[in-house]
Amino acid sequence: MAVTPRTLARWKQENRPIVALTATDYAFARVLDGAGIDLILVGDSLAMVALGHATTLPLTLDDIIHHAKAVCRGVQRALVVVDLPFLSYQIDSAQAIASAGRILQETGAAAVKLEGGYPQLLDSVKRLVEIGIPVMGHVGLTPQSIHQTGYRQQGQDPAAEAKILAEAIALEQAGVFCLVLEHITADLARRISQQLTIPTIGIGAGSACDGQILVTHDLLGFSERQPPFAKVYTDLQATITTAACQYITDVFQNAQVKHPDFPEVKP
Fold first, then answer.
1. What is the largest CA-CA distance in the chain?
2. Residue 149: other Cβ atoms inside 10 A
3. Which listed residue, 90, 98, 179, 267, has the most CB atoms within 10 A of its CB?
């Protein structure tokens, strides 16, 4: 059966871990869904891993809708959540509704995700939930605020801890069905997960969260910048490089031509 926000809520009560990964296209989505991944996020990290940008900030709403359409075509079971890109929801609730509405209407995704927990954003969350759009929250390290926070771990002092905890509680009260906790201390993640009734999904936040998510390119060893908290399960970059080099060798050997740039490839 298809995974829904209610499924995640039930799994938290059952103490059943939630397993999530990102996808940027049909091929990755089809494989991850077939493997049994519960939640697939079309994250704004695709700006870096798929489009080559240095940060998530250049990603547009049209960009992510294009990728989310492809991802949704490859998914039958997993819950598909799509990030709202930078400046597609921060102005006011009307903008957030218009952007989230486009995503659900044009892609077939079931929910959207947005970053932060400041008062104006909470109003947007409430309005989205009121009109029937499921919302996932995101606190801790928020990549769309990277020029302000950097990539360092968040919540390392009492004031920062209190702020993140307050944002998490406020987001639950505003109506988010799930909350991503990114790169915060394991103790803070444990406290948040225990206090909230909604599931928490950790990324670099320890093992006490109700679920875990990674950027799939990081898991596969296919990223240019590997986060310190991301375990590499295979070296896909080396695998593809080896395959490509073997293909080059075969083509030149079959043609009985010496490669002009790689003398070791002999005809």
1. 69
2. 14
3. 179
Residues in Cβ contact with 175 at an 8 Å cutoff, skipping those fewer than 6 apart: 125, 126, 128, 129, 130, 135
Contact 79, 41 (CB under 8 A): no
Give the C-alpha separation, 119 to 113, whole Å. 17
User: Is 182 among the catalytic positions?
Assistant: yes
pLDDT for the residue 225:
82
Nearest alpha carbon to residue 109 among 69, 143, 147, 76: 69
State phi, psi for 115 to the nearest 5 degrees: -105, 145
Query: What are the CB-based long-range contacts (under 8 Å, 24+) for 60-63?
Result: 60/85, 60/88, 61/85, 61/88, 61/99, 61/102, 61/103
Residue carrying structure tokens 């486009």: 102
Q: How far apart are CA 213 and CA 1, in angstroms?
A: 21
Residue 154 contacts residue 160 (beta carbons within 8 Å):
yes
- Say what the pTM is: 0.94
Of 19, 163, 119, the C-alpha closest to 78 is 19
Average pLDDT estimate for 153-166: 95
State which amino acid sits at residue 179. Answer: L
Q: What single-letter amino acid sits at 25?
A: D
Is the Cβ–Cβ distance between 173 and 215 less than 8 Å?
Answer: no
User: 130, 161, 182, 264: which one is catalytic?
Assistant: 182
User: Rounded to whole angstroms, how far apart are CA atoms 254 and 252?
Assistant: 5
Q: Tens of pLDDT along 96-131?
A: 999 999 999 999 999 999 999 999 999 999 999 999
